[in-house]
Amino acid sequence: MTLAVQSFDSGRVRLLVLTAEYSDFLWLGALLAGDGEMNADLTWCPDLIDCDDLIHNTHFDVILWDCVFHGGSEDAFLQYLSASSNEKPVLAMSAELPSERAPGLFSNGAADYLCRRELDAWSLRRAVRCLWYRQQLSEYAHGRLGREVASGFINRDLFFDRLQQALLRAERAGERLALLHINLDDFRSFNESFGYQKSDQIMLKLAERLRLNLRRMDSLMRIGGDEFAIIVEKVEDSLDITQIIRKVVNAIGEPLSIDGQNVVVSASLGVATYPEAGESAENLMRRANRAMFEAKRDPGTSYRFYDRQLHITAGYQLRLEADLRNALRGNELEVYYQPRIDLASEEVRGVECLLRWNHPERGVVGPDEFIPVAERSGLIVPIGYWVIEQACRRLQESSELGHPGLVFAVNLSFRQFHDRKMTETIFRIIFNANVDTSLLELELTESAMMHDPEYAQRCLRELNQLGISFALDDFGTGFSSLSNLQHLPISLVKIDKSFVQELGRSADAEHIIRAIISLAHSLQISVVAEGVETEGQLEFLRQHHCDEIQGYYYARPMPWNDLVQFLDNRSRSACLQQ
């Protein structure tokens, strides 16, 4: 152990302390002071707004987290820390006994747990030191292993042993596993052009790039002169594999620089999954190899799945994502508008902007199919801004066409809050459009705010100051609705259609809807019911003073020209009735 520690860069351990109380920070610093073997360097973060910036832009060895420090959900915040901290260990601390708290915290990503009531200098130093040593050894071993993998030092026997161990873990846990077999295309020409040493540098650089795009739990190995294998563990569904393949394909496609000369390589990927393609290391490798040779038939970097059904699912997702990128550039996306009707006056109070995709080959692709793809790939961010631009443009047109005061509601994806320039971008869009911001409404779900609640609240407050209003979508289906109503600038809630469609069949649904309307009105918040399709549903909502309704009873989502005609017809009908 001493030799391993001496091989590290220094004896200084950097801790990020997440606690709201300065007195706790001083207390923890005092407990860690005076450790002759470990020199602790502590940084205090009492503010959730600064937490994300520190984690992503500053290096720390250990995160010391007081469990009461979170943005409303302890589990969600711990999962965020585990995912965002570049796999640095999280040392959790709370007042409860370890037997009460530790299991749940460990399952959500904590590396160790300490009870405040039992905490002393020795136990704190021991926990920090153990996590620090473990992290240092992991990084050291990972770096050494990476060099051996890329250089070809790991042989096929060791590879099969690692694959067998991964299969045993997958079998015990009841999980799926995927094996990717990668073969570089026409590698002989690189040997002839550059020589064997420089060709090997291509493999070294490619291995390093691939490793940077994989999770720590995934194993990358060089199993031949021009071949790699990747063991992907803890696979939940084909979409997990899709994400890995996308990263691998993108990494392979980027040029490599060898002695100042850019070199572009292509590769063929074969994918076999456990248990679908086999339950032994030999079968899995043989079938991944067979799939790889099938991929050789396609030009450029390509992939094939041995398992046909998984191939269809994941391959379709990847193609859909590529098509969606082209759709945004090729004007294939279109906004449809569904009217919202005021129950008291029967007038159209606003419209919800809904996205549709007119695919040149598949026809109309439903949002349930392509929105998840857009969110996973991050394309939803530019698409979301595009929809806001369209809404502002139509808002201006509707006033010119004789329908002023129409509210345009746009859905805001949770991914939008990952963009640190969201407020600035939306402000620029509405400034350029020169529209009445009080007629622009952003709909968001509770999940949209879970990634970084403090940042989300700050964005909403800033946008609200510009005059933009907010609606809480799918109200009643989330876990913190009341908290959001209290702390966020919400002016409208939308009752989820799952409750509306149960009207007349479920007494519980009726009670829930009555309670939502009563609660919202007591807070001076308007209510819209979604999914209204029958006269009975309409009458129940009218009797209980729901403000607006949206659903097929009045109108389906429609293109802009149809909406203008719909509005004109209703205006003429209103004039005739008068």
From TrEMBL:
Domain of life of the organism in this record?
Bacteria
Which InterPro entries does the record cross-reference, listed alphabetically?
CheY-like_superfamily, Cyclic-di-GMP_PDE-like, EAL_dom, EAL_sf, GGDEF_dom, Nucleotide_cyclase, Rev_trsase/Diguanyl_cyclase
Pfam families linked: EAL (PF00563), GGDEF (PF00990)
Keywords from the UniProt entry: c-di-GMP
The cross-references to Gene3D superfamilies, in alphabetical order and at most eight, read: 3.30.70.270, 3.40.50.2300, EAL domain
Checking PROSITE patterns in the record gives: EAL, GGDEF
Major enzyme class:
hydrolase
Q: What is its EC number?
A: 3.1.4.52
**Where does the EAL domain start and stop, copy by copy?**
317-571
Gene Ontology MF, one = cyclic-guanylate-specific phosphodiesterase activity
Record-annotated GGDEF domain positions: 175-308
Q: What NCBIfam families is this protein classified in? A: GGDEF
**What is the protein name stated in its UniProt record?**
cyclic-guanylate-specific phosphodiesterase
